[in-house]
Specification:
Number of domains: 3
Oligomer: single chain
Largest sheet: 7 strands, mixed
Strand content: 25-35%
CATH architecture of the largest domain: 3-Layer(aba) Sandwich
Structural class: alpha/beta
Number of helices: 19
Distance between the termini: 47 Å
Radius of gyration: 29 Å
């Protein structure tokens, strides 16, 4: 439910803030709104009051060097917004930083304004601090309810960090009338590569503009406000330096807190100077209603995913499997809807890896599907391209949740992605097979079964073997295979059963390696190995013995071709598989040349084995 609150500017005794003696502490009688503001807003509010005699409503502000203070700058920003809007009357939704000056001006000119914080839990301004009687909703944008196409314009300021851009654009499509305006003001990343510092987690400007186009919005104007933002940062740095001692005393701060804040603002100032980030006002117009709508998949939409999965692959995905894939280690899923029906899905399963010996997070692309009725649209406007390109832009590359992605598409699917310029091949999978061996024990090694998640001895042995393997693969890319991972991947799998075996020395008991086996009608498969690479021959011998003990006719193993040598040395018969290993070339990510033939991947790295 929407509720209105009446908010007024609080003007405390200005004499309190105009003491010439800054050594006098006023902390005990600071107005409650300033005491309750979170750091660093409390710093900016108090410093502005000390400097200007009145607190501004918003502090990460914009103003040209000629503007004397925050309050004047906010009035100028309000005039700028007014000039970008269609003529009144009309209904406007404001989302983001407290924009009371803007709201009041729009109200005076005949617009009906509805305000909304960027996120309910991030409402930074206490009741009684903002200068407006404009109605404020306590709903989040994602759940906000209003009549379809009832708004003339939507204004967002500094909201794209708190609110997912897909949510913004979906809601804008729902709420804006045709030709309605979407204004987005905020900081953006202007370039992105391995050297870029994105300490504010800003969206890339070009990506947001491209994404808006996929939602039927055309860009009709861009106003660069970066110079105003840098002036504001300079002013904030000056304010804190000027009133440092009063701020420390009155707000009970430490010198370290203010020093860290100043360093953060100086870093941001440098990013502006280097043109890595900028501040812009983007003006979009709703041009069309798109045929397909992109959304992040929500939990209440999971039943639709299960239906699409069954139509696509002719078997069921259970809730337990979905939870194991996407919820145990939070992943990302993008869906495409047409007329309220889910017709495509693109999933990403998070994976902790070592990237040339350094910890990173990758994402395995999986459960990629398009309803058969929509597969004929194999263009850059079709559902597969829309969701794949959006996923890569939002999540994979430098300064994103996942440094790189991988997967196991077949050759046909890989060619489609290559044609669109989405992926490039960095590896292939091969299969080795062996005949089983008799069950006779080995003289120098023996086996220990791992079948309990609380086996402390096994935990130590697995972590030891993983460290040996990690050392050998320090010039490669490999998913982390420690005890925590083996528990999640194999011992806690909701439907598959795996045989996990520790191979250790018969005398002394030192761990040599871990074998993970899967038994089915096609034979005994080595799903995973955790060991130093020189231990692979011994592990394969034991795997062949176990295949014979379990009555299988063959043992087989899948591995990336670039690591075929130690398996070929065991006498295995090698054959090619129709699996390609992709990497993103759509956006700024590690170069293909760096990644090619570097992955260690086995069947256990596939979510479906």
């Amino acid at each position: 439910m929407t509720k209105s609150v009446e908010q007024k500017i609080i003007k405390p005794d200005l004499q309190l803030y105009r003491h010439a003696d800054h050594g006098v502490s006023t902390g005990a009688i600071l107005p409650p709104p300033y005491r309750n503001l979170p750091f660093p807003l409390n710093v900016y509010a108090h410093a502005t009051m000390l400097q200007e005699g009145e607190a501004a409503e918003y502090y990460d502000g914009l103003f040209p060097a000629s503007t004397p203070n925050f309050l004047a700058a906010q009035r100028e920003f309000a005039d700028l917004i007014l000039n970008k809007l269609p003529p009144p009357p009309g209904q406007i939704l404001e989302v983001g930083a407290d924009l009371s000056t803007v709201s009041s001006l729009l109200n005076q000119h005949g617009y009906k304004v509805q305000k909304m914080p960027p996120a309910v839990q991030q409402t930074a301004y206490p009741h009684g601090f903002s200068a407006t009687d404009i109605p404020v909703t306590n709903q989040a944008l994602e759940t906000y309810k209003a009549e379809q196409e009832s708004f003339t314009a939507i204004l967002l300021r500094d909201a794209t960090q708190a609110i997912e851009p897909l949510t913004i654009l979906n809601k804008a499509q729902d709420l804006l009338a045709l030709s309605g305006h979407l204004l987005i003001a905020g900081e953006f990343l202007l370039k992105n590569d391995a050297t870029t510092c994105n300490i504010k987690k800003l969206p890339l400007l070009d990506h947001l503009i491209t994404l808006a186009g996929r939602f039927g919005f055309e860009l009709i104007g861009t106003t660069d406000l970066s110079a105003r933002a840098t002036s504001a940062l300079d002013y904030l740095l000056q304010l804190v330096a000027t009133h440092r001692q009063r701020l420390i005393k009155d707000l009970s701060l430490s010198h370290e807190q203010l020093a860290e804040l100043e360093q953060f603002n100086r870093t941001c100032r440098g990013l502006y100077s280097n043109n890595q980030i900028g501040y812009a006002l983007l003006q979009f117009r709703k041009k069309t209603q798109p045929k397909w709508r992109l959304q992040l998949l929500k939990k209440n939409q999971i039943p639709e995913l299960f239906e699409l999965f069954k139509r696509t692959f002719n078997h069921d995905m259970t809730p337990a499997i979905w939870h194991w894939k996407y919820n145990s280690i939070p992943g990302r899923e993008i869906g495409v809807w047409r007329e309220r029906q889910l017709i495509a899905h693109y999933g990403g399963i998070a994976r902790k890896i070592l990237f040339f010996g350094q910890p990173q997070t990758a994402v395995q692309i999986g459960d990629v599907m398009v309803d058969s009725s929509e597969r004929g649209t194999l263009t850059k406007k079709g559902p597969f391209f829309l969701m794949a390109a959006t996923f890569l832009e939002r999540y994979i590359g430098y300064n994103k949740p996942y440094l790189l992605g991988f997967g196991f598409p077949n050759e046909r699917a890989m060619k489609v992605a290559e044609r669109y310029g989405l992926y490039a091949e960095v590896g292939r999978m091969a299969e080795f097979s062996w005949n089983p061996l008799p069950k006779w024990p080995r003289i120098k090694s023996r086996l220990y079964a791992i079948d309990q998640a609380d086996d402390h001895y096994a935990a130590g042995a697995v972590n030891h073997c993983w460290q040996q393997m990690a050392n050998d693969l320090s010039e490669s890319l490999v998913g982390i295979r420690d005890w925590s991972y083996l528990q999640y991947r194999y011992l806690n799998h909701p439907s598959n059963h795996y045989q996990i075996v520790l191979v250790k020395r018969r005398f002394g008991g030192k761990a040599r390696g871990i074998i993970v086996l899967r038994h089915d009608s096609s034979g005994c498969e080595v799903v995973d190995l955790v060991a130093a690479l020189n231990e692979i021959p011994e592990l394969i011998v034991h795997a062949r013995r176990l295949a014979g003990i379990n009555g299988h006719r063959r043992l087989y193993c899948r591995i990336t071709e670039n690591f075929a040598t130690p398996f070929a040395a065991t006498g295995g018969i090698q054959q090619a598989l129709d699996f390609r290993i992709p990497a993103s070339i759509w956006d700024c990510a590690p170069a293909i040349e760096l990644l090619r033939d570097r992955w260690w991947l086995m069947s256990g790295d596939m979510d479906f084995r």
